[in-house]
Amino acid sequence: MKRRDFLKNSALASSVMFAPSFVNAANNLVFTNTGQKRLVIIQLSGGNDGLNTVIPVDNDIYYKNRPNISIEKNKALHLSDTISLNPNLIGLQKLYDKGNLCIINNVGYPNPDRSHFRSTDIWQTASDSNQFFKYGWVGRYLDQNAKFAYQAIELDDSLSLALKGKELNGIATKNPEAFFKASNDPFFNQLLRQKTDVHLSEHNLGYLYKTMTDAKSSAKYINEKNTIKDTRITYPNSNFGKQLKTTANLINSNINTQIFYTSLDGFDTHVNQEKRQGGLLKTYAECLEVFVNDLKQNGTFKDTLILTFSEFGRRVSQNAAKGTDHGAANNVFVVGDELKKQGFYNDLATLEDLDDNGDIKYDIDFREIYATILNKWLNVDDTAILIKKFNSLDFI
């Protein structure tokens, strides 16, 4: 059997290639998740415009720089006398009112990169802007603190750099049930039975066979643990809604997974931003509200922390196409049941002191947020994972 035939014919191939290092012990694993802390990461991919998300409604500079795309004060969702939310973020406003939301403003890093790919890599690997790491910060967490690859799951068909470690990768799957069915595909099982007849060194087939065996046992574990096949709560019918629904089902099933990674794409709003961003923020907030309510009804919200970030913010001034171009610092949302800092962690940028590109300067390094979550929430050595020491914040 040639490698290209395996890749062409196996329904599991795409998942297998992103799911190495499983262990067969998963078949017999007994796990109880009492009090286990979980982290759900949401990436708003494309660079969400933070200024039209958390709005400085009393700031004349904001309105002067955005004559066509600014959000009017009487249309925005009131949080305080000076700050409001985008009118599409009703679900987020409800979380704010209940004390389940912490908004961290002006988050970024030194010498920001305005490339989607590079800035995403920086956020996913927790590197400096002039460093290039091969492994993600979640992957390094797995290397040092996990035994099973499914202890970090990305709700997608391919694995982000964030979940790739040197010794252990997370897994990527949109549908655990389909993943399990693929692992029992007749061709897949036939290939495993034939492995002794194949020269294993050819095209790294030895590695592939081990990966396939490990993936099969892990698919079995996830399928068996995923006991909540459906929920009584209705999620919005969107790809993002499906990601969060699957995540909630796995969490409520007490699976041994500490980190879940999800994403909502489309935030690169260079043209006609208002409608496009508004629709995306509505999807985000509606799905997030349902997700939190699902966890609350099942008693799992108290042990779940939700982190939302985007790889950068947008330029303060609108462009000629009624959109915004790539910027720098942005806001980050943390949602949880026992936040020490509810509402606003820090002040919004003044908009009077911008960088040389006309962008918001960062006050808080995003790795300080990672360090806080690793140390205070997941109870692991943040310095070893982030490779250097960062200050810990006081929001959890």
From TrEMBL:
First and last residue of the signal peptide: 1-25
Organism of derivation: Aurantibacter aestuarii
Protein origin, superkingdom: Bacteria
Record key words, sorted: Signal
Name of protein: Twin-arginine translocation pathway signal
Keyword Signal found: yes
InterPro entries xref list: DUF1501
